[in-house]
UniProtKB/TrEMBL annotation:
Classification of source organism: Bacteria, Pseudomonadati, Pseudomonadota, Alphaproteobacteria, Hyphomicrobiales
Gene name of this polypeptide: ddl
Coarse class of the protein's main subcellular location: cytoplasm
InterPro entries the UniProt entry points to: ATP-grasp, ATP_grasp_subdomain_1, D-Ala_lig_Van_CS, D_ala_D_ala, Dala_Dala_lig_C, Dala_Dala_lig_N, PreATP-grasp_dom_sf
Organism annotation: Microbaculum marinum
Molecular function via GO: ATP binding; D-alanine-D-alanine ligase activity; metal ion binding
The protein's name in its UniProt record: D-alanine--D-alanine ligase
Localization annotation: Cytoplasm
Function: Cell wall formation.
Family statement: Belongs to the D-alanine--D-alanine ligase family.
Length: 306
């Protein structure tokens, strides 16, 4: 019997447009693989919608709060619908950067020096001597991220904005010069490593999603031992958070440092972008998995935690 897959997309986080793109690409590919697909633009009536649809699997193409932080995963657990990507706890831990940093540090995964402060505290005075990075404690797609350079006398005044929508806690980290590296994990296998080179500025929302916003070098042109270290750490980060399915770990690498001492893990994305031009499908293709084969694997890998 043909498996019925509900592709969950959209939602109401700041990452809604990205999620709609991921969801459309995945739904199209799953239909091409022979699945019966229902596209669900997620709203707060999701439980009723899924109870009516009774899908065999939920393909989670949501990004950001509610879709990536364990919330929708908990709903799917209650409904007993197997779903793609990580479960409740792993999703919540990965989304909240302070919690994942604590786990990484305990597991020996290198992280940048940093601490969580209140947004207005970060706005009043430099928490560290520049350069440093300010990022929301639980957001994705580089929303609300600022790199504070040496020549900036004051922190970003955007932090004072009355319509700030990214939470009251921010993570402030020492800025690590060098390369932006990323590595996907598929099940228990780390895929290739990409060196992301923004065409201007840093790897912000535009660089991620605007055509031509960044150049992807795959495989990354780094020393073989560093390449393998990134793969090892990506898989370890996936495992210590308790992730399953597909994830993507992001790193900074100061190639002026000795050995791997310039490498730090920034975060694990449990719901990485899934358009055909996104990073994870690119790494999967490099490993021999077509986009259709990748989403098919994700559906067949779907489960509930309990």
């Amino acid at each position: 019997m043909t498996k019925h897959v509900a592709v969950l997309m959209g939602g109401w986080s700041a990452e809604r447009p990205v999620s709609l793109s991921s969801g459309k690409a995945c739904a199209d590919a799953l239909e091409g693989e022979g699945y019966r697909v229902t596209r669900v633009d997620v709203n707060r009536d999701l439980a009723r919608v899924l109870a009516d649809l009774k899908p065999d699997v939920a393909f989670n193409a949501l990004h950001g709060p509610y879709g990536e932080d364990g919330t929708v995963q908990g709903l799917l657990e209650i409904l007993g619908i197997p779903y793609t990507h990580s479960g409740v706890l792993a999703s919540a831990l990965a989304m909240h950067k302070a919690h994942s940093r604590t786990i990484f540090q305990a597991a020996g995964i290198p992280i940048a020096e940093g601490k969580v402060v209140r947004r207005l505290q970060a706005a009043e005075a430099h928490v560290y001597e520049p350069p440093y990075v300010i990022k929301p404690e639980a957001q994705g797609s580089s929303f609300g991220v600022f790199i504070v350079r040496e020549d900036q006398q004051h922190p970003p005044q955007e932090l004072y904005a009355a319509d700030w929508a990214y939470g009251e806690d921010v993570l402030v980290e020492r800025f690590v010069e060098g390369k932006e590296l990323t590595c996907a994990v598929m099940g228990d296998t780390a895929l290739g490593v990409i060196d992301i080179v923004p065409t201007q500025g840093f790897y912000d929302y535009d660089a991620k999603y605007r055509p031509g916003g960044s150049k992807h070098i795959l495989p990354a042109e780094i020393k073989p031992n560093i390449y393998q270290e990134v793969r090892k750490l990506a898989l370890l980060a996936h495992q210590v958070l308790g992730c399953r399915g597909v994830t993507r770990a992001d790193f900074r690498y100061d190639d002026r440092a000795e050995g791997a001492s310039g490498l730090v893990c920034l975060e694990v994305n449990t719901q990485p972008g899934m358009t055909e031009t996104s990073l994870v499908p690119e790494m999967a293709a490099h490993a021999g998995h077509s986009f259709g084969a990748l989403v098919r694997w994700m559906v067949e890998d779907a489960s509930c935690d309990r």
